[in-house]
User: What shape does this take?
Amino acid sequence: MYTGLLHTHRLTVILFLLLFLVKLILLLMNRSETLENFSNKTKIPERVIEVLFLGTGIYLLVMAAEINMMMILKLVAVFASIPLAIIGFKKSNKLLATLSVVLIIAAYGLAEMNKVGVSDEPLAAEIVTDANAANFDQMALGKAIFDRNCQLCHGADGKLGASGSKDLTVSELSDAEVTSLINNGKNAMPPYKDLLSETEISAVQAYVKSFRK
Ligand code: HEC
Assistant: This one.
């Protein structure tokens, strides 16, 4: 359900953006007749896209593991762009219309940058990250990373399931599949290959496996 809505949201955001880009280009090129034609033809699909885009957005926000500054900025940009777009296109005001499209693109960019769970805050000093060190403790490292990066969505016991995530205690994925999932992410889960070292990824993979009965 969550995943389906996430994909619907992403798709409708892109359609919404394309629609407004076409309209803006027509307005800036002074093609008012074509613009009027295009607007009339796309009126119903536009309403449908709008409702889906805002509706799925609100649902995703309610289900989100965390609401952060980026999400608030994104919301402000989206809601500010609506009156600007209405006035800008109705009055053929190029400045307002451009501003509205810039705000929608900015919101889209913020959404792409906004990845919950990618904190790179330093781990506690006593956590050893060097796998060759004599006092290396893989489980301690895995737990530290899990607490910092994963529990937001998965919960301290792996069962939370926020943002459409899955219960880790009943996971049946192989070690290789989990490692690949942590590296590359999936749906709402961000990729970690640029944030964590291989040692850290194996440690957190071993740690999440310990949740299984
Ligand atoms: C923003 C939320 C979020 C964060 C943060 C997150 N995950 Fe996930 N995780 C998900 C989602 C969503 C799925 C389900 C992906 C799918 O299959 O659609 C998932 C699935 C998984 C699964 C597979 C469960 C199964 O059996 O299908 C594992 C294992 C996992 N995450 C581990 C981690 C680890 C380890 C971290 C931290 C390094 C982490 N996750 C951080 C959201 C998150």
In short: The chain has two domains: 2-113, 138-209. Residues 129 and 184 are 21 Å apart (CA to CA).
